[in-house]
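Narrative of activities, Objective 1.

The group set out to show that a structural description can be obtained from nothing but a protein's sequence at a throughput compatible with the screening campaign. Below is one input-output pair from the validation batch, recorded exactly as produced.
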Amino acid sequence: MEKDTAIYALTPRGVRLAEKILAGPVEGVLFLPERLKDLSRGRSGTRGAIFFTRLPEVVAENFSRYPNHIFIAAAGIVVRAVSPHLTSKDRDPAVIVLDQEGKYVISLLSGHLGGANDLARKIAPLTGGEPVITTATDTAGIPSMDLLAKEKGLIIFNLEAVKSVNMALLMGETIQIYDPEDHLGLKTVNLAGCAVEQVLREGRWRRKTPGVWVTWKNERAETLPKRLILHPRSLVAGVGCNRGTGSREILDHITRTFRANGLALGSLKCLTTIEAKRDEEGLLTAARELGVRLFFFSPPEINAVHVPHPSDVVKNHMGVSSVCEATALLKSHGTRLLVPKTKSPNVTLAVALAG
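Output recorded for this entry:
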């Protein structure tokens, strides 16, 4: 298993506490100051530790490399070490701070989206300590919309709107939810302790009332600052291309097609194509840059699908009458083709709505 946690211990007692954490379910790399090198010799729990001279330097080197950082140190020292590297709440890693006795396990940074609150709750039983969670929704026992979105695999389009929605929940106000396909799962389940109004039609949305809008369509967030827009991973993009087509043309055609058809690129679930393209570097690179998986289908699977725009040219070259439309329909389970075949000089693209 790849290690996803950096653990920094600054004192001998801190080292012993780090050993307890590493003996648990945390897969981590231990960072120790040079002055503790002699102490670590012969201790199996510190085997493989990386030694550093100055904490700010080792944090600068590793802050973006690990999604989780655990510091056994004074909170003030940690704040000064990490503050130069902070970007935004949806990108910063989780930061946990413990005293050297492990009595308090403080979720310091990225409590919701970074998972620091959950990490603190996981570590506290290992140290016999108490998780310290200070995010307002957690202390009030109210679900946070950014955390709920993360749990449901939804992409937050306008993170700044989270504050309006969460504040309304904290104030006991009613929030709107427009989620026609029920990606949040709240049509039949109550949001504990919260007043929710389900909006069934777009035209019934009240502009001045905070709420959550779940859609795979491209929306303009700036016109409604209190509307939190969430994008479900619902769109399957089937792609065909000539041999040797570069990733830039593929990416540009996908971006243009989504924009022209009012589709949210954040809702892209995956790319699909024919098995013969398994080694097509342009497609592989495009999928990596988009952060989605690329799925391949065999000619027999493809030929079993009825498509609106079959091609004799594709049939002659690939042995199938369609690549983009057929593979998009296959992966989406044939529910709905939102965008039929579109073309650039070397790329064909179709977009289907996943069932």
